[in-house]
Write a structure and sequence with these properties.
By secondary structure, the protein is of the alpha/beta class. 40% of the residues lie in helices and 17% in strands. The protein has 2 domains: 108 residues, Aspartate Aminotransferase, domain 1, CATH 3.90.1150; 234 residues, 3-Layer(aba) Sandwich (Aspartate Aminotransferase, domain 2). The strands form 4 sheets. The protein has a 7-stranded mixed sheet with strand order 2-10-9-8-5-3-4, with helices on both faces. The structure holds pyridoxal-5'-phosphate.
């Protein structure tokens, strides 16, 4: 069995213990599985200190299913949503709202520019019809970190609602719901919690969720209905991703043993620093300035050399046990390397060595 290390933003490399947690079958109606779900949801709310105000509603599917569920259930049909955009996941929010036939205002930013609290404030003042702001915390397209706390204060001061896609930052970058006002925070099992993919979740203010009955355009993605049913029965509506929940329970145990958000953040910071330093010695340039780079995924400019092709780099590095990720920027040629998952700086160092050997074999760099 190949055990390649995934340097991708999810699915990502999971520990042996997380994989082993999937070796049992669970009955979806069984009390032990219901307890598993409840304990996972409890832990998730506590990671962002939301237990006094927020509840966690899990949702089957990949992260986008949970984003679509949150937007569909929490934004009423008459709502109008401001989306500060600096990448593909922001655009996906606008696209989802388009499917739901809701009013959207996209506030465009450059892909290397963090979302601006001042521009958001001006947009909210200019258009009192805007009811919600929907943003991405770490825009995984380029790997940029948006200033969530400052934006949240602006949105709250303007008495609008805030929905945050924290998919690639949750559990790795600190978020404190007691000091950062957020209506709903969305993430998933298979990112920085280092579980396997298959379930998303929305951490939502209980009062906001209570007033969201019959908003949803979709039955399967109705967050309010999922929550009511789960409260009544302890069960998921419809078949739960049982093995994913069991793996996430184990991944959460390991997260706590590691030392929680601060320890995970420190490990990812080290991974990111090792990656950037190693790649820079090969002459590769990062797309983002260091001060806006999140320690989640790094975008590199493709080397300006006729022999360079990402597919060749990918194959060469894969043969040495590492999986890279293509770029996702609209204008320029880039590729990405993830810093997250059950990996450490030694793995990153080996990946930069594999990159060096491959670029040398391709004739893109002359010495290693
Ligand atoms: C991974 C990710 C998602 C969800 O993507 P899926 O492929 O549906 O899991 C959404 N937003 C961001 C910022 C992400 O990194």
């Amino acid at each position: 069995m190949s055990q390649a290390i995934l340097l991708t933003p999810g699915p990502l490399t999971t520990s042996a213990r997380t994989k082993e947690a999937m070796l049992s079958d669970w009955g979806s109606w069984d009390v032990s599985f219901n307890q598993l779900t409840a304990s996972v949801c409890n832990d998730i709310v506590q990671i962002v200190k939301g237990q006094a105000t927020h509840v966690c509603v899990p949702m089957q599917g990949s992260g986008t299913f949970a984003v679509e569920a949150a937007l569909g259930s929490l934004v009423p049909q008459t709502g109008k949503v401001l989306v500060p955009s600096n990448g593909a996941y922001c655009q996906r929010i606008a696209r989802i709202l388009g499917y739901q036939k809701k009013d959207v205002v996209v506030l465009e930013h450059a892909e290397d520019e963090p979302a601006s609290p001042d521009r958001i404030l001006a947009a909210l003042i200019a258009d009192p019809g805007i009811t919600h702001v929907a943003m991405v915390h770490c825009e995984t397209s380029a790997g940029i970190l948006n200033p969530l706390h400052d934006i949240a204060l602006v949105v709250a001061a303007q008495k609008r609602h805030l929905i945050v896609d924290a998919m690639s930052s949750f559990a790795a970058i600190p978020i404190d719901l007691t000091t950062t006002p957020i209506d709903a925070l969305i993430a998933a099992s298979g990112k920085c919690l280092e579980g396997v993919p298959g379930m998303g979740f929305v951490i939502v203010r209980q009062d906001v969720l209570e007033s969201a009955k019959s908003n949803s355009h979709s039955l399967a993605l109705d967050l309010h209905d999922q929550w009511i049913y789960m409260q009544k029965t302890g069960q998921w509506r419809y078949t739960p991703p049982t093995h994913v929940v069991a793996a996430l329970r184990s991944a959460l145990d390991q997260f706590h043993e590691e030392g929680g958000v601060s320890a995970r953040n420190a490990r990812y910071q080290k991974n990111c620093a090792a990656l950037v330093a190693g790649m820079r010695t090969l002459g590769l340039r990062t797309y983002l300035a260091d001060d806006v780079q999140a320690p989640i995924i790094v975008t590199f400019h493709s080397p300006d050399h006729p022999n360079f092709q990402f597919s060749k780099l990918y194959e060469g590095v894969k043969a040495q046990g590492f999986i890279l990720y293509p770029g996702k920027l609209t204008q320029i040629e880039t590729f990405r390397v993830g810093c997250i998952g059950a990996i450490d700086a030694k793995d990153i160092f080996k990946a930069t060595e594999a990159t060096a050997r491959t670029l040398h074999d391709l004739g893109v760099i002359s010495s290693i």
